[in-house]
Write a structure and sequence with these properties.
InterPro entries: Rhodanese-like_dom (IPR001763), Rhodanese-like_dom_sf (IPR036873). By secondary structure, this protein is α/β, with parallel strands linked by helices. The protein has one domain: 3-Layer(aba) Sandwich (Oxidized Rhodanese, domain 1), CATH 3.40.250.10. About 35% of the residues lie in helices and about 15% in strands. The protein contains six helices and five strands, in the order αβαβαβαβαβα. The chain has a five-stranded parallel β-sheet with strand order 1-5-4-2-3. Helix 1 crosses helix 5. The longest helix has 12 residues. The protein is globular. The model has no long low-confidence stretch (mean pLDDT about 95).
Length: about 130
């Protein structure tokens, strides 16, 4: 193996902006900020999410960001600041680096992810998928 996940994380952490949960919380409810939850649906069902978050599973991220992809999501073409998070901050660090490499400029991730967010006593809401009543 040429490069493992630890080396990839080290590279990402040197290149991206990392916010503490408290710093990220200062951006809640701002119209020019989108919190992006990259966890899978089982995690959202089990643990909830940061209020108002946009859900983009890690496996589709590159396709949803690229405007030339048939799966492109218009939210990623908006002039907004994107704050990525996952459960513990590892996947979101890699996702943030990827999104940055793809051209998103105002971007950061939350150190420690949703786990640290919850430990800080910050708000979490239940996830209600669109296809469930």
């Amino acid at each position: 193996m040429r490069k493992g996940y630890k080396a990839m994380l080290d590279e990402a952490m040197q290149a991206i902006v990392t916010l503490t949960p408290e710093q990220a919380a200062e951006h809640l409810n701002k119209p020019d900020v989108v919190f992006v939850d990259i966890r899978d649906p089982r995690e959202l069902e089990r643990d909830g999410l940061i209020p108002g978050s946009f859900h983009a599973t890690r496996g589709m991220l590159e396709f949803w960001i690229d405007p030339e992809s048939p799966y492109h999501k218009p939210v990623f073409a908006e002039d907004k600041r994107f704050i990525f998070y996952c459960a513990g901050g590892l996947r979101s660090a890699l996702a943030t680096k990827t999104a940055q490499d793809m051209g998103l400029e105002k971007i950061a991730h939350i150190h420690g992810g949703l786990s640290e967010w919850k430990k800080a006593g910050l708000p979490v809401q239940d996830w209600k998928p669109k296809d469930k009543k």
